[in-house]
Write a structure and sequence with these properties.
alpha+beta, Endonuclease, Chain A, Sig_transdc_resp-reg_C-effctor, WH-like_DNA-bd_sf, DNA binding, HTH luxR-type domain-containing protein, 6-stranded mixed sheet
Length: 156
């Protein structure tokens, strides 16, 4: 069983409420895409629910095979780009500041440290310190791992 939640749902219901409602955190992912929340059980049933602007919540149970197949394909594609619930909650709403985003942008562009530092208006030593701080923050030991982790979390 997998549960795919929108980040809007998590923000609306709050951290503690989401953790209480959904205790199987390893099988829950959160996406920034504007989607219905989706729960698929054994590819045989799917529950979809969302808050419709201007009215109350709406929910649907899907059992028809062709429609279920479409919902499943959509959910699988979205699942792979979504963050695990624990990662989403750990990051909170703060995300990355402008400097961190700029450093990650330079790293993803493959810029050399000196070039990246110059474009950010800092010394190469300061730039390397920013990179080291990001590596610590994301608990990785190489720049490659940093890029992979940031991509996995959908932050860049």
């Amino acid at each position: 069983m997998r549960l795919l939640l929108s980040s809007a749902y998590v923000a609306t219901h709050g951290r503690q409420s989401v953790l209480r409602q959904f205790s199987v955190a390893s099988r829950i992912r959160v996406t920034d895409a504007e989607i219905c929340n989706v729960l698929i059980v054994d590819r045989q049933r799917a529950a979809l629910w969302s808050q419709v602007p201007g009215s109350g919540p709406r929910g649907y149970l899907v059992a028809e095979p062709a429609l279920l197949s479409v919902v499943h394909q959509f959910a699988v594609r979205t699942w792979h780009s979504a963050r695990q619930l624990r990662d989403h909650l750990e990051l909170g709403d703060a995300g990355l500041d402008e400097v961190a985003r700029a450093v990650l942008g330079q790293l993803s562009a493959g810029a050399k440290d000196e070039t990246a530092a110059r474009s950010l208006g800092v010394s190469p030593r300061t730039y390397r310190r920013y990179v080291a701080q990001l590596m610590d923050r994301f608990d990785v030991s190489t720049r490659f791992q940093l890029g992979a982790r940031v991509r996995e979390l959908g932050l860049l």
